[in-house]
Amino acid sequence: MKRIVYIAVLLLINSAYAQTIKSPSGILSLNFSINPEGVPAYQLLYGKEFIVKESALGLEFSDQHSFVRNFSVVKIDSSAVDESWNPVWGEVKTIRNNCRELAVTLKQTDVNNRIIIIRFRLFNDGLGFRYEFPMQDNLNYFTIADELTQFNLAKDHTAFWIPGDYDSNEYYYTKTRLSGIDATIGKEVTEISVRSIIGKNYVQTPLMMRSDDGFYINIFEAALVNYPAMHLKVDQSNFILTSQLVPDAVGNKAYMQTPCNTPWRTIIVSKNATDILASKLILNLNEPSKIEDTSWINPMKYIGIWWEMHVGKSSWNYADVNNVNLSLTDWNGLKPNGKHGATTENTKRYIDFAAEHGFDGVLIEGWNVGWEDWFGKWKENVFDFVTPYPDFDLAGLSEYAALKNVKLIMHHETSASATNYERRMDDAYSLMKKFGYPAVKTGYVGKIIPRGEFHDGQWMVNHYVHVAQKLAENKLMLNAHESVRPTGLSRTYPNWLACEAARGNEFNAWSVGNPPEHETILPFTRLLGGPMDYTPGIFQIKMNYYNSGKKEQVHTTLAKQLALYLTMYSPLQMAADLPENYEKHLDAFQFIKDVPADWDDSKYLEAEPGDYITVARKAKGKNDWFIGAVTDENSRSANIDLSFLDKDKIYSATIYADADDAHWEKNPMAYRIFTKRVISKDILKIKLAEGGGCAVSIRPL
Ligand code: NOJ
Ligand code: CA
């Protein structure tokens, strides 16, 4: 690691003050200043163009004098970092962390000389900054009422936004100018279990924007720990965004004790959309792994007893009764409804299928008692996470899976009762270890308990991290659904393989679904913080297959479902459809069997948020390449420049493309598969249907 401290100036200036640093390549500049009232501010420039104009920094406290004005500079530290590190799993083998740092120590002379440090890290592709509160005599405990961080964009950019909501991020995106945002339209999305929309002009981060002069700008945060998530309030006349933190049950935002700091506030910027997708800024701003021995952490591809419940073929619950009680109900005495999905027999069927087709794991939902009335009652003790239903042979199945060399993936739906989960997690994790389950999918459907807390507030943020830590102590891996969206913490806790924390494929089974452009936006927003358990691979696109009255459908072609294994990076990838649906399309299924979940390299070849993405990835430790291209509701040609291939090799490419007459709505399951010899000089041109995509696997001959 190279870390050079090249300036350390000690000064005390009471009047206006300014300081500039440049990114390593010189393309970005950060100006820090203090105005005559002692208010700290920053600006971000790309060359000579303002990306963020003068924007104030500060915090309001609910129990003491604010951190807003009357600051003077005590000390400025500058340094440069240029180092590389290897993630445990990821899109690339090695990540370079190359930035300039400016740490400004400020003193509030009128309030007991209280001190704050504002630390900036300027990369070639963006800026991160955070507030740090060192240990000091006059600032010990404090309660944050509001963070007043501004992002003064000064222009009416095009934005890809979802409503600011303290509880849910399961929305599809709307594209408007900043002036056109109306987040209350989210109220009409009725399928989301719990929603707490803030108001008309509030949106969530990551917020992806495009300027009329060709900049791609993304505002987000990194390393969210012991603090609430940051949404944004949009001033729709002046285009100034201000941080809006998720409150707690009594209206405060965060409880702090020095020494402490906020998460990093981030602005990623480039003239190329592909650079936003390839950015490692968020990961670089997170702490290195806290887990020393990571040998037990493995990317996984899995299938599961899951989609069959979402399409209504089977149920999570064992009996159809509407009042059960963990300690009173005689589970063996209940009358089975005949539709239960997680039976011993059905689980064996999935284990057999996983073994036959080389999948690492099988997720089983609905194995444990409590699903009869799990939702909508704000009930504290719904699940105990240890008692199987009478028709699920926990011990026998773990032996059966071990014999077949398949791992079982545990499911802990908490029904948002985090208190209940925390009380029972030790027993739950012991049970997982006893029966050889290496990973758990958690879920938080419903209103949070402790009552009054939100999914994205400080209390729950601490809960999710606690779960990841506890699992790490037990050498177990995590996939969290309905959690706060990730902010790069998988670097610190690499056992935290994935989260949902966005609108996943499941919405296509039982709601108006995800519009065809959805998967061309998620990588520019949600995925910047870490992998998503999107659950791709649905082959049976229309739900009337299960029930003739159903109008729901997946809003993609079948070939696009294959492409998602590339464009939606995750070390945990599900083949989400039913075994019997894959059996009908074994030729296309071959791609899901072949595609890895871990990579040595990734090249974003072409991209435009809301329109299309093409990415090529090199399999970990191999010379095989895989490519995925997706488009929105418009048909287009993917132009895949193969110059990343070795110059001296000949390769065989297998192309899984939309058929000529494919269309996400009219003819979604029409695909064609063909093989071609390719070399590095080739450019593959492949037609993507409306709502379509293509997947390619390339092997050296
Ligand atoms: C919502 C999750 O996203 C989904 O995957 C799961 O099947 C249900 N909750 C039940 O826990
Ligand atoms: Ca969900």
* Rounded Rg: 25 Å
* Amount of helix: 10-25%
Shape: globular
Mean pLDDT: 96
Structural class: alpha+beta
The domain tally reads 2
CATH topology of the largest domain: TIM Barrel
- CATH 2nd-level architecture of the largest domain: Alpha-Beta Barrel
Annotated CATH homologous superfamily of the largest domain: Aldolase class I
Number of strands: 37
By oligomeric state, this entry counts as: single chain
Report on the structure:
Helices cover 15% and strands 34% of the residues. It has 701 residues and is of the alpha+beta class. The strands form seven sheets. Strands 1, 7, 8, 9, 10, 13, 14, 16, 17, 21 and 22 form an eleven-stranded antiparallel beta sheet that branches. It has a seven-stranded parallel beta sheet with strand order 28-27-26-25-24-23-29.
Topology overview:
Layout: E1 2-13, E2 17-22, E3 28-34, E4 40-46, E5 49-56, E6 59-61, E7 71-85, E8 95-108, E9 114-123, E10 126-133, E11 141-147, E12 150-152, E13 158-161, E14 174-177, E15 202-204, E16 207-210, E17 216-222, E18 230-235, E19 240-245, E20 254-257, E21 260-261, E22 264-270, H1 273-278, H2 281-284, E23 300-305, H3 307-310, H4 344-357, E24 361-364, H5 394-403, E25 407-413, H6 418-434, E26 439-443, H7 458-473, E27 477-480, E28 496-499, H8 507-510, H9 518-521, H10 558-567, E29 572-574, H11 579-583, H12 586-594, E30 599-608, E31 612-619, E32 625-631, E33 636-641, E34 651-658, E35 671-678, E36 683-688, E37 693-700
Bound molecules: 1-deoxynojirimycin and calcium ion (CA).
